[in-house]
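EI: anyone free to look at a 162-residue chain?
SC: sure, send it
EI:
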Amino acid sequence: MILSEPTTKKRITLKSLFNRQHNDEIIERLNRLTPDTKGVWGKMSVSQMLAHAQQPLKVASGELKLKRTLIGLLAGHIAKKKLSSEEQWQRNMPTDKNFIIGEERNFGEEKKKLTVLVRRFAELGPGGISGETHPFFGKLTVNEWDRLMWNHLDHHLRQFGA
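SC: here you go
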């Protein structure tokens, strides 16, 4: 009988965008990107990724309001558990159509906007979370919002080697 080797999933250290040191780490990784940085996987350019990564932060703060989706009602709670865990997100995951950035963007402008949003998340702290229901995941605790924002940024920074 042949036993297959156990599959191991990469785990990430639980980090928080509310934590100033961890927030600084994300900013440092953003600063490693250049307009010429190529993705390790996926179709987005680096400037599109920077614009895309802003959208969930805007949803968290209430700046961007989206309606709850049917697929979210049906499967959001399952995805929430997986995506807010300490496991690294897989490559080429599906993206909500509201977060797809089709056109090319100005790298410098998008990097600056994302940096401001990441810093603002830490500065406002848990009180900066809107309390709105997430359009896909449903009701989230402050800790779940924080984990999802960290995991999303980490995922895309790894996508571009940062």
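EI: Residues 107-124 form the longest helix (18 residues).
SC: 👍
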